[in-house]
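Worked example 2:
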Amino acid sequence: MPLIDVVNGSSTTYPTSGLALGVNSTFTINAGFFQVIVDDDDFVFNGDQIVNETPDDLNQTTNIGGADLAIAYDYSFLARSGGTTYEFAIIDVDANGDGNFGDGTLGGADAGEQVYYIAVLGPSVPVIPPGGATFRIVDNVADNTRQNFDQFICFASGTRILTASGERPVETLRPNDMVWTADNGWQPLRWHGRRSVRTLPGDGPVRIRAGALGNTRDLIVSPQHRMVAAGPAVTLAFGTEEVLVAALHLVDGQYITVEAAGQVTYHHLLFDRHEIIFAEGIASESFHPGVQAEELLTMAQRTEIRQLMPAAFQQGVGGDHTLSRPCVRRAEAAILRQMVAARQHWPIVACVPNQVAKAA
């Protein structure tokens, strides 16, 4: 589950109850942030029962003072300070463990329960604001009460991406860096987002061991990140030369495995269109800003992308973000798993020109 940086609500000038202050209102944070881990059973950090959840989800907890207490994602808003726009969220805490978040709309306030936190969820490149900073609210969303953390399509830190300056760790890439794509040659990176999460057993990233798909080193991606498969077997099975298949659907327990629970930082790489790029020497997809992906991003990340590419979340409009290859469903991926298990040759897709490979 996610790692969230929070500050106790009593250390700010922000009100302790009610919805967000209006646009252009200001508040000050008078203390530093600290990090908490959200443990949950379904990878959806829910809000309280006022809007989207009845009853409250008491399975999402964080440890405060040695006790695992239920928390709820109440609402979020955007605020700006020092030239940076942050996404904040109000987090309610069941401080006395009685199963009531103390909301004043349904049944009255929970007596003696005054604990809540302000969490910082963005910008896309995590920057924790300093204590004493004053913020101006630029947008507020009442009861924005869901954050999903399980369907990221992205690379883990350390993954080497083929760029005009050679293979570089994904965490070092910046907007406008030129990245090699299978379909359109050198393309500028438009946006780089990232998020650190704490995974549970069985829900960790997928490790594709060196050589399993022709990759030069172990490649670690999120479970839903899609790889490119090609060759006669693909054409025979699917009627097309190349397909996309989620890494999770290739897991065979030997050459492609699910990592143990732990902390991982995921990176999203967005281009003008859905691209096939090269990670550890093999073809894989760039971030695809579809409807589901939009729900997974923080509000700050969605705002950043819309400012850069207004039509990014509109399929087939403006920047064309239709998928660049057909996708293989879980049941259809069996033939591809068999190729991995049999150590058959996994074709190198859209081979990188020699002059590019030499430059890398």
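DSSP finds five helices and 25 strands in the chain. The first strand starts at residue 3 and ends at 8.
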